[in-house]
Amino acid sequence: MNRKYLVGPFTSTFACWTYGNGVLPLLPLYAIERGATQTTSGLFLAFAFLCLALGTFAAGLLPKHFAHRRNLIAACGLLVSILTWLMSRTTTLLAFAGATGAVWFLCGLVFAQAATLTGLAAEAKDRGVAFGILGMTNGLGSLVGGIGVGYLADQLGFKGLFGSIAVFCMLIVVGGQLSIESPVKKGPREGPRPAHAIVGVLFFLLAAQVFLSLTNAAGSLGRSLAMNQYGFSKLTINLTASIGGLVSLFFPLLLGWLSDRIGRRWIMIGTYLLTAASLVLLAFSRFSWHFYVFAGLFAFLAIPFSIGPAYVMDLVPRESAARGVSLIQAMFWTGNIGGMAAGGFAFDKLGTFAPLLFSSLFPIAGIIFLLLIRERAAEN
């Protein structure tokens, strides 16, 4: 694959991940500062992830031969910048929630279009590497967003924070204009794929993604609430995102390369196990270094987000790639909706310990579905 096809998608997704990973730990705290309960803060995050899921779903509704993805990414970036600036001027929680939802919807569109452009340009033999490179934007965004956003929040407050991010989001526009369209034309499949086998494998893969997203919801919200409970500063809370970014900066590329050789399913199972262990550690965390170790393990949760679309590209015809990729990404965000809402309620009523231990079972359930994919594939 020619690396020039990755420059645009890499730039735009890096900007979105920096925004999301930097702001996510602070969103429940912003809500609580304005009188919201932990339950309400969970609902606030659930709404944001609902909009993100709707954005990725909407991308899948575009025509199969849609040829203006780069312009769509640029337009989304411009709107994200404007809405983020307006967020710095909001005075009510309701108005802030509306602007946040619109931004996350647009970022969902950007994620799906960038992944589709990458998948269409990559060949099967190096698809894992291509999506691994794109997956590095999550770690890089966590590193930059964790340090930068936390520092700006402490120094400038939320108004100055969102005003600064609005300028940064113009990178999405740049990434869109740097993207290169690949032709979407029907061609021979890369192997025999009976329709019932494709449907069965996708069903189990999507179910596994939903369970993983429930874990993401519990870990993201639980980390913020637990660290806030123990009196850590906003910068310290966001440092956990930076540590996770350091860990996940290079592993997507390494594991993507490995998935091209030993199979994507087993790489995903290993990351699910590490994610389950991270939730157990978070439940018992009390000191800053506990949370830092948790962040390092929890960062492996992002690996299936990059390997999953590559797995879908292995299964579906080229002309259906956009919808397949959009669906697998949307499933990841969909589980966050219920997870954030239920997590906020559970943390409010039960504290953080018991809900986090229970949430560590979600990746195990996801592994069961991944193993069923192996059995189903072997039968067919």
What would your notes on this structure say?
This protein is an all-alpha fold and 380 residues long. It has one domain: Up-down Bundle (Growth Hormone, Chain: A). The protein is 83% helix and 0% strand. The chain is built from 15 helices and no strands. It has helices at residues 4-23, 27-33, 38-60, 69-87, 93-121, 127-168, 170-178, 195-229, 234-262, 264-284, 288-298, 303-315, 321-350, 353-359, 361-379. Helix 1 (4-23) crosses helix 6 and helix 9 packs parallel to helix 11 (288-298). The radius of gyration is 19 Å and the shape is globular. Residues 375-380 have low confidence and may be disordered.
Core attributes:
Growth Hormone, Chain: A, 15 helices, 380 residues
